[in-house]
């Protein structure tokens, strides 16, 4: 019932059943969206280099960024 000590740029696993999907502040939005879709999750934890949580990005947040950037093109 704890976290593995390893920290990768894509995921950190819980010892039990669940898998926490994570990204870093500099991660590509498209890469994070693909990761969320592939793992069928609605949010991704944002972690720093020491694996500390610095925030959460929801799928709705990601879609909002895309919508904001597409509106000027229309």
From TrEMBL:
Residues 14-73 form the CBS domain. InterPro entries: CBS_dom, CBS_dom_sf. It comes from the Eukaryota. Keywords: CBS domain. The keyword Secreted does not apply. SUPFAM superfamilies: CBS-domain pair. The keyword Nucleotidyltransferase does not apply. PROSITE patterns: CBS (PS51371). This is CBS domain-containing protein cbsx5. It comes from Castilleja foliolosa.
């Amino acid at each position: 019932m704890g976290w593995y000590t390893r920290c990768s740029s894509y995921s950190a696993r819980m010892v039990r059943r669940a898998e926490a999907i994570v990204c870093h502040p500099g991660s590509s939005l498209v890469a994070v969206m693909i990761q969320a879709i592939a793992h069928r999750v609605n949010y991704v934890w944002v972690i720093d280099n020491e694996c500390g949580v610095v925030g959460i990005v929801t799928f709705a947040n990601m879609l909002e960024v895309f919508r904001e950037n597409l509106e000027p093109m229309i």
